[in-house]
């Protein structure tokens, strides 16, 4: 089982784009890298919690999520928050992945 927390839209070079949709795309790429490093796949995600700053365009966040998961469905919740830990961050996710033991 894999639990993650605090995955945000900061790129590997340390930059954070201003648009929430761009941040969401980077965030999901980071999730993918973490999953693969731990031996999991996107289809192993069983639930995730997304935090998005109030007033931002959630359409772009949901589009990035849909691109990431494709047809896979997992339990999820989207929680609007007044702010995240850094002012440039607009979206954050925590993911749980699991697969049957062999």
What structural keywords apply?
alpha+beta; 60s Ribosomal Protein L30, Chain: A; globular
Structural account:
By secondary structure, this protein is α+β, with helices and mostly antiparallel strands. The chain has one domain: 60s Ribosomal Protein L30, Chain: A (2-Layer Sandwich), CATH 3.30.1330.40. The chain contains two helices and five strands, in the order ββαβαββ. The protein has helices spanning about 20-35, 60-70; strands spanning about 1-5, 5-10, 45-55, 75-80, 90-95. Strands 1, 2, 3, 4 and 5 form a five-stranded mixed β-sheet that branches. β3, α2 (about 60-70) and β4 (about 75-80) form a beta-alpha-beta unit. α1 (about 20-35) runs parallel beside α2. The longest helix is centred in the N-terminal third of the chain and has 18 residues, at about 20-35. It is globular, with a radius of gyration of 13 Å. The model has no long low-confidence stretch (mean pLDDT about 95).
Summary, kept brief:
The protein has 102 residues and is of the alpha+beta class.
Number of domains: 1
Globally, the shape reads globular
Q: How many β-strand runs? A: 5
The amount of helix comes to 25-40%
Per CATH, the architecture is 2-Layer Sandwich
Distance between the termini: 13 Å
Separate helix tally: 2
**Uncertain residue ranges:** none
Oligomer: single chain
CATH-assigned homologous superfamily:
RutC-like
Structural class designation = alpha+beta
Rg, nearest Å:
13 Å
- CATH fold field value: 60s Ribosomal Protein L30, Chain: A
Largest sheet: 5 strands, mixed
Mean pLDDT: 96
Using the coordinates above, name the CATH class.
Answer: Alpha Beta
